[in-house]
Amino acid sequence: MVNPLLMLAVALGVGFIFAWLRPYAKTAAWTLLYGALVFGLAVSIQWLTHFVSGGVSTTVLPGGFSPPVGIALGWGMKEAFISSIVFLGGLLGSIALFKTWRDTPSAGPVLFLLTIAGSIGLIMSRDLFNLFVFLEITSMSTAGLLATGRHHEGAVSGFKMMLVTGLASVLFLIGTVYLYRITGTLAIDQILVSPALAGTAGFTASFLIIAAILVELKIWPANGWALDVLTSAHPVIAALISTVHSVAILFVFYKIFPLLPPDSLLIFTSAGLMTFVSAHLAGLRQDNFQRMLAYSSVGMMGLFVTVITWTSSVYGHNIPIRIESIILGGFIITHLLAKGGLFWVVAHFKDSEGNFDITRVGSTTLGGVIITGLILALAGLPPFPSFWAKWTLIREIAASSLPIVFVILLGALFEVINLFRWLGRALEGESHCAVHAPPVLSGIALFSLGGFSIGAIFLGWFPDFNISILIPFSGLIAAGLVAFLPNRIQISISILILGLAGFALVPGASGIGQAYTAIILGSGALMLLTKMEAANKDKWQLPLIVGTVLTVAVLGAVHTALEFWTSWEMMTAVSALLIVRGKNAKKSALMYWTFSMAGAFLLLAGLALAVSATGQTDLSKVFAGAPSLSIILISLGFLFKAGVLGVHIWVPDAYAESEDDSTPYIAALVSKAPIIGLILVFYYAADAFIGPFEWRVLIGWIGVLTAFFGALFASFQEDVKKLLAYSSMGQIGYIIAVIALGSYTGWVAALYLALHHILYKGLLFITIAGVISRTQTSLMYKMGGLIKRMPLSFVAVLMSIIAISGVPPLPGFGGKWMMYSAFIEAGWTLQAGVAFFASGVAFLYLYRLIHTVFLGMPKNEHINVKESSIWRLVPMYIIIAMIMGIATMPKLLLEPIMNLVQTRFPATMHWEAANLISSLGSWNGNAIMMVTMGVFMLPLILLLFRVRGVKRVKPFNIVYAAEKPERPETTHVAHNFFAHYRRAIGVIALPRATAFWRGVAEWTDTLGDWVRQWATGNGQTYAVQVLLFVSVLYFFMRQTAL
Amino acid sequence: MNSLIKRLKMQFDVEEQTQRSNLSFINATALQLPALLTHLRDYEKYTQLIFLTAVDRIEDNQFQLTYMLADESSQNNIGVRVRIDRENAVMTSIAHLWHHARTYQQELREMFGIDFPGSPGVNDNFILEGWEEIPPMRRDFDTREYSEKTYFPRPGRSTTHPRTAMKAVDPDYPELPLMKGRVK
Amino acid sequence: MYIATKAFYLFVSIIVALVWGLTVNGIVRKIVARVHGRIGPPVWQPFIDIIKSNAKRSMIAHGVMFYFGPVFRFAGGLGTYVFIPAVFGSVVFENLSFSGDLLLVMYFIFFGQLGMALGAGEGGHPASAIAVGRGLAQMTAFELPFALSIISLATQYNTLSITDIVAAQQAGVMSWTVFTNPLATFAALFALLGMNMHSPFDIVIAPQEIPLGPPTEYQGSLLGMLHTNRGIFVSAKLILFMNLYFGGALNLPILMVKTFAIYMLSVVVGVAFPRFRADQSIRFFLGVPTVLGILALLIQ
Amino acid sequence: MKSTENKIIHPLENAGVPEDQRHLYCDASPRPYPALNKYVERFLNWARANSLWILGYGTGCGAIELRPLLTSRFDISQYGMNPRPTPRQSSVFIIGGYLSVKTLKRVIRSYEQMQNPKFVVGLGSCTVNGGMYWDSYNTVNRLDYYLPVDVYVAGCMPRPEAIIAGFEKLKSTIMAGQAEGANEYAERFDWYKSNQKKIIKDWDMPDYNW
Amino acid sequence: MTLVSILGFVLIAVGLWGMLTRRNLIKIIVGFSIMDTGVHLVIVSLGFIKGRTAPIINKALSAGDAPSRAVDPIPSALVLTAIVIGLAVTALLLSFAVRIYREKRTLNIDDISELKW
Fold first, then answer.
1. Range of the domain at A520
2. What is the pTM of this model?
3. Which pairing describes strands B76-85 and B23-28: parallel, antiparallel, or unpaired?
4. Is B50 helix (H, G, I), strand (E, B) or coil?
5. Could D75 and C49 be called an inter-chain contact, meaning their C-beta atoms sit closer than 8 Å?
6. DSSP per-residue codes, A542-562
7. Per residue in E72-90, pLDDT tens?
8. How far, rounded to the nearest angstrom, does the alpha carbon of residue A153 sit from its chain's CA centroid?
9. How far apart are CA A270 and CA A489, in angstroms?
10. What interface predicted TM-score (ipTM) does this complex get?
């Protein structure tokens, strides 16, 4: 084993040699520089593996004396890990900076090495004064690094930094010497055990030290300087400061925070939380990407402080290594690679004038993939390490303190909103500018992230996680890898992927989940056929669609809470990406993302609470023992995702603005995710149907009101996709309401309705996508008369609207019949009334849909419109055949459903031959189908006798006398079709929810702006803030300590 | 009314002719007309244009246009008469003063062939769709000849002058002599 | 054999309902005329009109859906009727009521409406589309009190089967729903006014402004079919109301008396009131009738 | 009879319609529809005669005399007659008085939109020979040159009784199977069309308004 | 609390006051220097034991006597390092000030706050 001290020595030494050697032997100098870094990395990793495999921590005594006389350097697993991080960050950073350094001779490389060396010193040293020295070394070298830039901004922010850190070091120094005075030693380990520490003087001195470190850690509000530094620095240097330097200081904090009594830790936790929330709040207002990253870094520091102090306050000094590794390790790795990666991306994509435009990043496929990966990693989505960290953290905190969970999740919500906003901007760009060489570094970063997470699973840290849950991820990547192939081969491969996933997932699932997974995969594959029509313009779309289908499907195959949460997050992320690839979808995707993430976080809080309360991992047991609060949180999360009334405002835009070909997957499949979630919760939860305050009745009302308002809003839309979106919202409302019933009939109805919704909503969206692709518009009043041009599409839409409206004989009626029966059986009569009203209002938009698009006057520009391509028609008619089959023989479908539901509720319906008997009435789908055929054929045959004299006329051959029809546009009654309805009851359809959420957004924005004003840019203000911060903190600490 | 005429005479070169106590006509020149009408509308409260009509003074080779205005507060009407050349029948549009004047002007354009340049839609069809002859209200247009030429007159139609027709005694209507007595 | 007998009975039942529906129409027209002090058309005028419409030699069609519109409409009327038991306890007039219940009947009403609306839509006449818009909007409104009333009945009798509901009312006049559940009955009767589209709720077919609305373009046999349907559909609606609220009928004469009386309700209201605008009638139905329906649900 | 049915009907030119709108209008010319079997036709004619649905065209002054027909005093509904708002469903077309060229155009449209069999009643002297406007530059003199008229009711204006008498006459004509105006219009289509086009110079509609 | 340490704290306060109230960069740096000096005084005062001598092993003070006769050597060692570091920081700050003045022609701290929010 190499002496770890050598890393430090080599780095320092090479720093000096480099400066001396560079003018004479460039190659040798550079080799030495990188050699030193690689050496350090290699040594650290070697030690790390040593420790992981059971090595014992050692203490290095460079002077040969033990404390208090000599300096002691600690060297254990944590130190080795952090120093690996530091060297890795340093190595990557120096590679990224190589070009800059080579072109302009400066002290940069030396200072860089000094910073690294100082950081290593900070990590290893266990001597207070030694720490002070290393703090100053790193501060000065980073300040120096700042000044190496061409612009004076570096000097300015360096000045501010030195001012504030100077102040901090004064505090540190005073604290140090007083501690020395009290305890007689400078070695941390000895101070900690010193009895003198407990007194007031010891407390104050320790406080000064820790306050100085907090200032260095950029805790709000004493962090304005850091924001300026990170904004003005060269991005790679900013990455170095934000990751390497900060992580080193964080480790210092980790070493010394036990100096203070444990009951004061809550103050640190709060300070960390405030930093976390305020940084992300202020970050929302940033339009400079690098400054946003600065805020993100600061927020991360806050989170670290929270995590460290909180775990310590819960576990004392015996924090389980597993938890510490996952939470801190996960976050630190993410911080290093993702945040560092984003800084490197900024560096790489800056134009010659130093301006950074994030749209340039997304303009290349590789750049897009990389920034997507980095941002998703930062946002804590699976399979990135931060995801596991987040899960573990929230699960651990939920066990003891729910408010902290909510604060953390609020901050995280701000963060993910902000990150996704930038991602949306990045992906918006089309390739206009010259393509850069791929940023290899970021690629490496991404790769390591994925590698780590998979490694984490192999390490067996999560025994409740089955690797098969990551199938969607591999499917997504596999589909992405073949994106260069011709379209049809690509689609065939995609369908194959879905099939393989089915083989892998379906046998492992059971019950409702199994059926669900199979159905989602099947319908996804069916819908994929439509893509055969034409080559894809967007290479992202197909992999994302495959990913969406798989992530939605995998929800049925999960067994543990962690697996559920993982697939839920994957589904959210992938579907948001699918939406954001639409033409003008940036804003709507952000809205979707915001509400989905808010729902997901509620779900996370609920799951974490349930898991920690039950101590179980298995989904069924978790739900079975879950406390009411967690059931409420979980179902609230699902309701958010389902877009029920109140949080529905993302629905129309997300559906309408996503690509026409993507919408069916979102509308028909993704919308089923919350449904299966609700079903799973209520299936397993023991008391979900009793609840503290009739929670399910509330959900039931939310459901029917969603159904009603969805239908009402749909009636007033002009955009066909928005109409269908609101229609989906309404249908989901019915399903939620009947799930909430918690009765046998209700659940049969729910499953039946959900399955139908997949069928006819998929059918509708496929058909309408075909129409839109032919007519090149999605505004209904611009279409019209298409029945003559697209008769097969018309039939498809006709079938689906009959199915949706519940008119017999198509299977929609069965759903409605069971729904009303269930409502009446349960005594939910008023809800039944509202549901009936909703289904009446549904007629309005359904008629409007078919009339405005297919009937009425054809427009001149659509005179040569052709029928949809065969690739659309085939899936369309397969679905129609399925609908007709179900209509004729509903028993085939219903019997399995009823068997599934029987496992949860006692049966209240039974079959008599083809007659389904409920406690209220009966339904014979078979007979109804035949009678309908009969009564339909009778007049038809009568009329067929008269078909000979009939003259087929043209559109304008309508009744008119004084005024002849001018143009098809003026003759087609389409725009604002239900104006009278709006006049009658439009007052209840005012966009109140939209106004409310806009208000929330504006208030958040204003708050963020207010928080952001703290960073005034004036170094003196920053210094004052530091003093104030320290004073206030001291005040609070005294309160708790005494 | 009289004071109005007096005031007008002070400002414009007009002749007046009073028909009733609340109805006067003044003759003006085509050149003065817009100014005169604007004055009447804006300063003399004659805010309403009742009608605009034309008479074919074929003997003078002129059209006489009459602009009838009303003062709703005093119930007084004033008609402004303007004569324009019949051969080159062009008149200033007053559609900017009263929007509905465009309809009258459209009608005059169609029926008399008087052009009002700048009047909106003045050349659009009004009543006659696709008329190809000289404008039918011009007195040199022989409407009877045109009707006979165009409308397939039913043979056997006879026309009697009302005066002679009313004198004839119909045995079915014994009260006719009473009527006859009235028609002299 | 069973099927043949059933089909024959069904045929008889349909013919009776059709003839009765048209006759009621004729009688009402006669009565209204007499009230006006006119002589009025003969009672059989609706039949002549139907023959006349079918006697048109030429017909035009705007497309397949236009042609299917009346077919849907008539099928909707027929279907509604065949799922309702017309005479309680009668083999002939039991129809096909065993294969469905009240919900089926309610939704089958939509079948015809939808088809007609589609046919009218393909006709392409602006007035048709406007009228369909009005009609659908008004329908959503008057279906609400009706639905509330039906739900109230279902909880009252704990069944959705029409035959069972009729059976429960056989204990004498006071066991009729109109007496046992008057709120629900009145809510439904308000809805019936809207359903019959008599004045004041005839904005849909407003003959002067939007020439008859949906059937503007229909003529000849297509119109004849619509008129035929009017006969059967009126019968179906009246019989449904009779069954649900007025104790059903044990034989045809009682059926005739009861249905005629129910029909007269909307006729009397119709001749007495002028027309509502579409939004007014929507708000009307969402007002008092809906409150009645909600009360009917809450009071039980 | 067979020959008329199978006659290949030349498509109409529809020159009056702008070129980009021609595809919106049917370009077939009308064809006569033969009567059916004598007895059937007799029955159908009875029905037609007893269910006369009126399309009233009332821009002429004669239309003022149509209103009383609907009142209690005259009540034509007792004869099975009813006003009908759409030409598609009407069978008798009442021209209420004089027709100018402009209104004739609208009358032709409405007439052509009615379905065979259809009947025309000319009301007032103006429809007979132009009446008091006989020498106007703008009034049609003889309606039967433009549409096949079944019954004229003379008078200026004819009283409601006269109109009812006219309807009686029309009914007996229908019953006798002689009211074949629609077929006549189709058979002499070119003649009618040329008369119409002679006076309607601004022919901006299809040649036959289906 | 010795006089020296009180003086040190006074210097710290004076320096801090200068740092926080002066607008001129140079004066701020001077303030920083004063504060630094104050800190050094405090450190030295903490190690001082009355009646003892400087902890320098030479003829006057043998290694054996050192524990009993010399003041605590560690604060003195610390202060030496601290002085060096303070000097370095001051130098760095001054170099920043020079650089800022070269490019912005100003030494007013209010004029260099364009990086904000």
1. 470-693
2. 0.88
3. parallel
4. strand
5. no
6. HHHHHHHHHHHHHGGG--BHH
7. 778 888 888 889 989 999 9
8. 35
9. 55
10. 0.85
